[in-house]
Amino acid sequence: MKIEVLSLFPDFFDSFLASSMVARAISKSALTVESYDIRAHATNKHHQVDDYPYGGFAGMVGMIQPLWDALKARLQSGNAPVIYFSPQGRPLKQKILCDYALEPRVILICGHYKEIDQRFRRLGVSDEISIGDYVLSGGELAAEVFIDGVARLLPGVLSDIDSAKSDSFYGNSLGFPCYTRPPEFLKQGVPEVLLSGNHAKIDEWARAEAEKITRIRRPDLLPQGD
Ligand code: ADE
Q1: I need a surface site. Which of 49, 50, 73, 144 has the fewest CB within 10 A?
Q2: Among 8, 93, 116, 130, which is best to mutate for testing ligand 1, by the most ligand atoms less than 8 A from CB?
Q3: Using CA atoms, how far apart are residues 129 and 198, in angstroms rounded to an integer?
Q4: Which residue ranges have their beta carbon within 6 Å of ligand 1?
Q5: What is the mean pLDDT of the chain?
Q6: What value does the mean pLDDT take over residues 155-180?
Q7: How far is the CA of 110 from the centre of ligand 1 (A)?
Q8: pLDDT band (50, 70, 90) for residue 162
């Protein structure tokens, strides 16, 4: 999979791409990530990429021209889904990550300022995604969330794909509690069933625990009527 990111801060991604699961995906050639500077496409004298909003509102708006030219340059090598990150986007879910993990190529647009010109969103963007009900100062962190979430789903990246299958949200639930050595710490033990070696019982325990925590913390995830 190839992900191309358009941003005013293309260096923002350097350390992110060099560590953890994303770096692993890149080193295994499952993923390529390239970041491009939107400002490089500004045609005015001061390389301006934002301007005051029509209507006299507060804040600045990302101008359509640099965004449009930056996107056109990427699309010269063929079409691809174009995602813009915004608090107005559809809430990011595991299912969305799973769907995009099947795409060979995705283009991500990171905005700044108040928003970007609505005409760019209409003409250039195929999907808008929000990572939560809060406002960040730019789309870069949201893009990193997206890239990390997709990278670990690409074939050959996780050494144990069963790990992804028992993640929170893989079914309709949160994950179950996990324990590792030592078997006792500060008088806190480990549920006995986990030490029993009885895999049927262990699976049953994990399912029940996942359901319990989901019922308490995120009942909205459970199938209606449960
Ligand atoms: N840009 C600013 N805030 C954001 C959010 N909550 N999600 C996605 N992109 C954003």
Answers
A1: 73
A2: 130
A3: 42
A4: 85-87, 130-132, 134-136, 139, 142
A5: 95
A6: 86
A7: 9
A8: confident
Could you tell me if 145 and 83 are in contact, meaning their C-beta atoms sit under 8 angstroms apart? Answer: no
Predicted pLDDT of residue 12 = 97
Predicted TM-score of the model (pTM): 0.95
Residues 28-39: pLDDT tens digits?
999 999 999 999
Task: Say whether pLDDT at 132 is over 70.
Answer: yes
What is the DSSP annotation of 175-205? Answer: PPP---S-S-BTTB---GGGGS--HHHHHHH
Closest ligand 1 atom, CA of 139?
A: 1
Question: Which of 6, 85, 115, 128 should be mutated for ligand 1, with most atoms under 8 A from CB?
Answer: 85
For 101-114, write each residue's pLDDT tens digit. 999 999 999 998 78
| Cα of 144 from ligand 1 centre, angstroms | 11
Please tell me the distance between residue 113's alpha carbon and the centre of ligand 1 in angstroms: 11
β pairing state of 105-110 and 2-7:
parallel
Are the C-beta atoms of 66 and 36 separated by less than 8 Å?
no
- CB contact at 8 A, 63 and 33: no
Domains in the chain (CATH in brackets) are 2-151 (3.40.1280.10), 166-221 (1.10.1270.20)
Reported as a pLDDT band with limits 50, 70 and 90, residue 171 is confident
